[in-house]
Amino acid sequence: MSIRYEGTVYRPPSEADSLILQVTIGCSYNDCAFCGMYRDKKFRVRRIDEIRAEIEHVRAAAGRRTDAVRKVFLADGDALIAPPKYLHEVLDALRAAFPSLRRVSCYASPQALDVRSVEQMAALREAGLGQYYLGVESGHDDVLRRMTKGVDAAEMVRVAAKATDAGVKLSTMILLGAGGAALSLEHARASAAVINKIQPRFVSTLVVTPVEGTPLFDEAMRGAFEDMDPAAITRELREFVAGLELRSSVFRANHASNWLPIGGTLPKDKAAILAMLDDALRSPDDAPFVPDAWRGL
Question: Any idea which architecture 13-294 has in CATH?
Fold first, then answer.
């Protein structure tokens, strides 16, 4: 037995050194206009005996290295939607196999957060599932509708609060450029306002990129979606960061899509981050933007 991955497997940048365990296939929602990651997959929860066998394979391969697995990411796009009993069985098997396990995380859609109760999430956290990656994308309702997120900003805040109440760490993502040039600054300000209400442990930005096979790509091909240049995206990012009022959050713009990789801890590094963005905006031609060919897109 070995680990068997079905299709392309995606993970957040911070899970680069994690064991990726594909407990679900695809995404239960799978309707976001910009996302092409799971369009070729039909959502299902994998059989628990398959998962146990894969965990045992990794444990056996590690041999005496009891610290071989410290972090696990549960793929695919929406593992939290799997039945709590099933997730508890996965977490029990992981804890038994890897005594040095420190963290188990997964993507969580707003729809999954809505379905899960605070009590269910708290019990899963106690069993080891302590961090969710939530694609907020925007705090602007028009942008959320355009991106077909299935929730508005108020609903996003409400379901995120459930995870926080359960003691789960949230890592949230905002999609720069999702509002196009017309809504750029409004999108940035509204997104900052939503993130301020959520107060996530981690917040990151990605840059929207029309992907073939998605409704957003079709819009772009019709000329209905306006691409934004690096300076315009930087201006939007600056507006977003300026509006953040966070008590203690790690900020990252290190996804491959970002033009200007930056990061820090907020609020401590807010002034330094804004200064770096202002420098880039003063002289866009000399700014250290990542070349398009290097952005991994």
Answer: Alpha-Beta Horseshoe (3.80)
